[in-house]
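Quick note —
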Amino acid sequence: MMSPVACAAPFPFNNSSSPHDADTDILKYPEIVKKPRKVAKSADKFFVLTSKEAFEAKLQHEREKASRDLIKQQRQAMKQKKIQKSW
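Predicted structure written out below.
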């Protein structure tokens, strides 16, 4: 008795899976869909400051930085005192 593989006819399709081949594929390749590019909304992210607002924002930033630096120095001084007490 022959095995089913030996008596089966050769595969009838020549699907080489390339859309540029001359033979017909079993499934047609879908058309390329060109999607519109997303436009950057960079104009929405930024706003124009007047010179007075910009100056005030800069001063506020400097005050906050000075405050953070002062707190940091105080914290480091406390750590130094704790280290000196433990010795």
